[in-house]
Recover the amino acids of this structure.
């Protein structure tokens, strides 16, 4: 039952990568991106229905659902400056809450985040705020939101490592890597078109891994 959705997901991801690289302004890009995101959510739902329906798996599925919604927001926000892009702001906020749900899911699995581990997300969030404080990229007030998001996604990564579950750790790492690459996409995509594809590769593989782990929760 799970093989067909995975096949469709992979096929739509490959199509998305081809369109993104060859014709990035195509109107089909939003449609294919939405189908690909719906793919990992569908896989997550199937895996959840086959699981023990624990609170941990429920929060993880809710996180995947918010990621799907965030993908839709960011798909329609594509091509407009962040400073004057309320749809992009909604997308960032949605992903922020998704990461918090992931953190709750990881904690509910019985793993504890040592207090000293919190130094990393706090440091990353503070460093991002310091970099953004003078608004070097003309992001406006959204720069504060980006600093908060940097803290939350780093917290999610720390929580993932605390689970000691390889699939969760790899999925979380891929998620973070995709966001880091997005920073370079924002400034250098015109000179290096392949950069537009890399975030999708890491992001969707990461989401697939998080969806599949629902089988075991």
């Amino acid at each position: 039952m799970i093989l067909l959705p995975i096949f469709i997901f992979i096929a739509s991801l490959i199509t998305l990568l081809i369109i993104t690289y060859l014709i990035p302004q195509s109107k089909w890009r939003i449609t294919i991106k939405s189908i690909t995101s719906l793919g990992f959510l569908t896989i997550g739902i199937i895996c959840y229905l086959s699981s023990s329906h624990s609170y941990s798996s429920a929060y993880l599925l809710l996180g995947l659902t918010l990621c799907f919604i965030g993908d839709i927001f960011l798909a329609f926000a594509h091509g407009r400056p962040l400073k004057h892009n309320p749809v992009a702001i909604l997308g960032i906020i949605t992903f922020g809450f998704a990461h918090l749900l992931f953190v709750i899911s990881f904690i509910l699995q019985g793993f504890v985040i040592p207090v000293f581990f919190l130094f990393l997300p706090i440091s990353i969030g503070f460093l991002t705020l310091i970099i953004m404080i003078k608004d070097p990229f003309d992001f406006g007030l959204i720069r504060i939101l980006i600093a908060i998001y940097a803290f939350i996604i780093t917290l999610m990564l720390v929580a993932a490592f605390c689970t000691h579950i390889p699939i969760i750790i790899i999925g979380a790492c891929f998620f973070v890597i995709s966001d880091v690459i997005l920073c370079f996409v924002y400034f250098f995509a015109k000179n290096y078109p392949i950069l537009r594809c890399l975030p999708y590769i890491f992001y969707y593989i990461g989401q697939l891994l998080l969806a599949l782990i629902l089988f075991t929760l």
About this structure: The chain is about 75% helix and 0% strand. Residues 55-77 form the longest helix (23 residues).
